[in-house]
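Lecture 7 notes: from sequence to structure.

We start with a single chain of 115 residues. Read the sequence below before looking at the structure.
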Amino acid sequence: SACSVRVASVGSVDGDVTYVVSRGKQRVIFELALKLTLEMELRSSVGELQQILTGELRVPEVSADDLSETKMPSYTNTCEQSGYSSAFNSAAAQCWPQLQKVLTDLVDEAKVKWR
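Now the structure, written as tokens:
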């Protein structure tokens, strides 16, 4: 069986984003707390949808320094369907590359906007 996970909605993003020019170099520094609703599809080996799991991913603190890390910063999650917490936790951890890309894009856009 296979699974795919996506961010279904953003519950909240709180924190600070700061634009700094130091020694002629642009930097965007941030510390954010994220609360995201995730949706995970479980499929059979032939691709047939078996179950859709939903739940919440909470990252209490993610910063610009975390963007170079291979693992997601400390997080917690909850799955709304009982019995699937372990699978949901594994899927939540796999969201990090997608979140890294979104946050990196945020930094790039901020540099353009705040020049």
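The chain has a mean pLDDT of 92. Keep this in mind for problem set 3.
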